Structure formats: C-alpha cells, structure tokens
Amino acid sequence: MFKNEFYLQDNEGSFETYNLGDFELEDGGVISDLKITFSTYGELNNSKNNVIVVPAWFSGTREDYESYIAKERALNPSEYFFIVINQFGTGLLSSSHNSPEPATMENSPKVRMIDYVRAQHQFISKKLGIGEIALTVGKFKRVLQTV
C-alpha cells in the first residue's frame, strides 16, 4: 500500500467517512470495502428538498470548494444543504493508492463515471435518507434515476 501524507485530515481539513461495503462496478470487478469521504454545509430542512450535491472533480477534493461556500458566495449554506463528496481515487477514500492487495495500482479495477454517480446515490439515499436532490454542481452524461 502506498502512503501519501497529502491526503490526511491535517492537510485536508475536517471530513466524514461512510463505508458502502463491497461495491460492484458497472464494467465488472468490485471495490472491496468502498469508503466515501464527504463534508456537509448548511442545514437539511424537514422536507429534505434543499439538497445540492457537489462532487469533487478528478484529483480535486472537497477542500477545493471551501472558498465557494459561504453566505455571500455562489454556494450559500444559509439557503441550501450542500453535500461535498470526494471522488474515489483521490487518496482520501478508497483508491488504488491506499487499497490492500490485490487491488493496488496496476491491479485496480476499472472505474467509470457512472460508478461514481451510483456510489454517491447510494451514499445519499442510504446514509442521509434523501430521495431527491434539488441540484448537482457539475455535469454527467448519463443520469441515474431513482426507483
């Protein structure tokens, strides 16, 4: 396992971790014991309809959004509940850098964008009990529908 001191809470600030368990990938393969790291800002209202999901970009982390989240900024936590989710592969959560054998580096399973979306959907619905979000900051070519 590769150790990277950059991806520690001392450097990245406060975040929470949620374990999704063994996560099956769309193209086959499994990420064992998949962990999602995230931070929330603002208050979730009783109707749970003020949710905006902010997925981090590839190699970015939720800390990169800190400067945009404030009352007088683009992402206003006094109006919405923001969930900023790190993308796996960053080192803050499950990645080829911190996974145990045999899923390290060149043996890492192939992950597609839809896998990130599915993992985030599972986290949001199971951990937070949210069935619908108001908005996602970012762009996806394929939309996951809730049933």
From TrEMBL:
Molecular function via GO: acyltransferase activity, transferring groups other than amino-acyl groups
Matches recorded under InterPro entries: AB_hydrolase_fold, HAT_MetX-like
Family annotation (SUPFAM superfamilies): alpha/beta-Hydrolases
Signal sequence, renumbered to the chain: none
Identification of the protein by name: Alpha/beta hydrolase family protein
Native source species: Psychrobacillus insolitus
